[in-house]
Design goal:
This protein is of the alpha+beta class. It is 44% helix and 17% strand. It is globular, with a radius of gyration of 20 Å. Residues 177-278 form the HTH araC/xylS-type domain.
């Protein structure tokens, strides 16, 4: 649609849309049928701290409820939800949310380590926990929720959220850039299967690395490595007709298939074979 010079186009040119998530969403093909997902980059004044905004909309008025599940990244989220807006620490297992009737949620995904300057405490205190938003930010949450959900367009919602966030921007902490360079390397380099490899690549002491991740990220570097490798596994199971789990376990750095299956089941709640049956 050619909408040159309209207000709508001006807003869209400011808010840049990001591609759909390719990893982390379990049973992704089915999830896309049940709900609409969208992600947007943050304004340049905020993108040091914020990886992206995300929205999920669904209308299951004439359908059964759907349990949406993800394998969360090492990031803190603020989620605005009519049933209860919260700050979500990293979930070590899988995160589940029941979609029913009709609704939407709006989320802010912080870069790994980037919530620390807002929280000003050890971020591991939030791991596997939620926190009320007004325990960190001086705000009337109900009023902000109402402003957000009055708007239908994601771009309008983002403008409201960014206007609020800009009043609370802390100093840029160089540790955040350092942490993200490590995590980017973990994502890109499939040969990184141990903390010792990170220690060598970044010339940092193992204990210093572990303390840094505990304080800023909320989980250990070992957990981060395993989580990104599990993302790869879930994606391969979703997209590959036949999966050789023994080869996959070795490829991901496991000594044997049994340890791989144990980690997978502890995280997702099903063995790889059982999970495969739920998506085919």
């Amino acid at each position: 649609m050619d909408c040159k010079n309209t207000t709508k186009c001006k807003i869209i040119s400011v808010v840049e849309k990001k591609g759909k998530p390719t990893r982390g969403v379990l049973r992704q093909n089915k999830a896309e049928l049940e709900a609409e997902h969208a992600r947007y980059f943050a304004n340049k004044d905020l993108d040091f701290f914020i990886e992206h905004y995300w929205t999920v909309r669904w209308d299951l008025s004439d359908k059964d409820p759907y349990l949406a599940e993800t394998l969360p990244y090492p990031s803190i989220h603020i989620v605005f939800d009519r049933s209860g807006s919260k700050i979500y620490g990293i979930t070590k297992g899988r995160f589940s949310y029941l979609l029913k009737d009709k609704g939407s949620v709006f989320g802010i995904k912080f870069r790994p380590g980037a919530f620390y300057p807002f929280f000003k405490k050890n971020v591991s205190l939030l791991t596997d926990k939620t926190l009320e938003i007004d325990q960190v930010f001086p705000i009337n949450v109900s009023r902000l929720e109402n402003e957000i959900f009055k708007k239908e367009d994601d771009e309008d919602r983002i403008q409201i959220v960014e206007s609020w966030l800009k009043n609370h921007i802390p100093e840029k902490d160089p540790n955040i850039s350092y942490i993200n360079s490590i995590i980017d390397k973990i994502k890109e380099d499939r040969e990184i299967r141990s903390v010792d490899k990170i220690v060598k690549l970044f010339s940092i002491g193992k204990r210093s690395l572990q303390r840094l991740f505990k304080e800023y990220v909320g989980v250990s570097p070992k957990w981060v490595i395993q989580r990104y490798r599990l993302h790869e596994v879930a994606e391969k199971i979703e997209k590959t007709e036949k999966v050789n789990f023994a080869e996959l376990a070795l490829d991901l750095g496991y000594y044997d298939q049994a340890h791989f299956i144990k980690d997978f089941k502890n995280t997702i709640g099903l063995s790889p074979e059982e999970y495969l049956k739920t998506i085919k």
